[in-house]
Amino acid sequence: MTNLLSQLPPDPILERRRAIQSRAAQTIGRRTLVSKAFLSVLVGAFLLSLLPLGSVIFALLVKGIAAISWPFLHTLPHQPSLIDQNAIGGIGNAIEGTVIIDGLAALVAVPVAVLVGLYLAESSSRVANFLRVITEIMTGLPSILLGVFAYAYVVLPMKRFSGLAGIVALAVLMVPVIAKASELAFRGVPQSLKEAGLALGARNSRVARGVIIPAALPGVITGVLLSLARAMGETAPILLVIGASGTWTWNPMHQMSSLPLLTYNYSGSQYPSQRAAAWGVALALVVMVMVLSLGSRLVAARMRREKR
Amino acid sequence: MNKLTLPAKRSDVAERIHRSATSDRPYTLLLRGTALFFGAVIILFVWSVVHTAWPAVTTFGYHLITGSAWVSGSGPYGALPLLTDTVLTTAIALVIAVPVGLAAALTLLFLIPRRLRSFAASLIELLAAVPSVVYGLWGLWYLTPWLSKTVQPFLARLTGGSWPFNGAQEGFSVLLAGLVLSIMILPTIVAISRDVIGVVPRELIEGGLSLGATQSQVLLKVVLPAARTGIFGAIALGAGRALGETIAVAMVIGSNPQLPHSLFSTGATLASTIATQFGEATGTTGSALAALALMLMVITASVNFGARVLTKRATAPL
What we know:
The complex is a heterodimer. Chain A has helices at 2-7, 12-67, 70-74, 92-122, 126-140, 144-158, 163-187, 191-199, 204-233, 236-241, 259-267, 272-307. Chain A is mainly α. Chain A has two domains: 12-67; 92-307, MetI-like fold (Orthogonal Bundle). Chain A starts with a helix and ends with a helix. By secondary structure, chain B is mainly α. Chain B has a domain at 83-272 and 301-315: MetI-like (MetI-like fold, Orthogonal Bundle). Chains A and B meet through α2, α4, α5, α6 and α7 of A and α1, α2, α4, α5 and α6 of B.
């Protein structure tokens, strides 16, 4: 038997397999070592990518808290002079301006965006597909372009800078983001739920109101809060259109102040006191943004749990 | 056979059901109307930029793109330095952020304990939530001195001060702008490439391992090639972000609209120039700045469209 086998010509496939196996066995030590080293490089790069985050947070906390005090948060800014360089006042009206501009922008953007999202989720016509592509491209466009838009259609006709122009720019910035998020949320609602609604004799509008929107609410709210957080941090469009204000301005027809813009202006100030205060403004801004983005997660998680 | 006919008069219930199923006009009109309104706003938006840019476009023609000097207020208005710096800073950002981002995505997916994954991912997402003006401020206070005292002397010594690491070492530079951009686009690259790498079929990975390939071989020769298209999409999305990023770049690049002669040169991008000069701009300068906005719109829209095509193709079921 063994004799017989050894007399056969060698099988080329078996030979090749044997060669590969022995080569693999010979190199396994080296290959494992190379693999381990490579994987550590990957993890190292990942840790490296967290370094800037740590540095930014550290800087914000150390320099921001040093600049922030209770009066700083609720008083009006004061223009320092060469004699009295440290009298910089507070950021009360910038917080107020930020809340008004972003709040009103959201108020305008949310209904439009949710309806657009519903339209995109319900319709697959050619028009809807085209709008979907455009919406997605809009979410990636630089925000400063919306500043140019608001300048051309709000600032120029009104012949003055205004909070309104900022509201318009931010609303147009928010709509595509919310529309896309809510389209995804609406599409996630099970078809069976919609059909159950329709089978009960409800109209499409009733199904949308009573079934689709409630079921998709966590997703929609997450989208709204995230886009609001993003809009709140936007400086570029605001920079072109809202002007500046040193007092409490409740009327968006006038120039207003806002946290991101104030951070930008203070960062390039000639007074060291204002440059240091830029960190305080930035910390206030980041806290507001983070509250919104963490809030969006909590809301989503909470509503998901309640539904179960 | 009896012919099936509808009853001449429907009962009330049937009538109501019929009406509720078919005549939902207000709802349909509301949805279509809103979508139409939004579409009109987008058209208006594009038109506002084109319209404002038009005087400059007709006056200067192609010199707007090829002219190598940009002087705000008096002219000439040539965007070549700005285009160069825009592309250059984006390229620097990609050179740094793509390898780091891919490594982070692979780490998040395969290399850290399952319990830590969502926490680690949310740390990276936190990077995206920081407003760009804060990155600008951070770059201004922390990176500028670090670059001028440590990085730039080091690079200059390493290369003997030869191009592209020559020139003044004052921190503000296209290099710094690229560095800040790389941090800002990292979350985008990590998030998208994590999504597209996540859909690489398990069988491929297991097949590779069962053939005796080591983990690194599987990652490099199976996972990354399989997710290639989507990764290009992620890179394109990151590039789109970097090309249009405004405030952080304006704060660290030095606002100098001249052709860069090295990576240490100060510069100005399309977006940063609009941001820093729009305030004082009148007449022709305003129009020329709008022309920059138009270029920026065309470039970023095309890049984003390309990214969309790539990521769609990568995550689509086979």
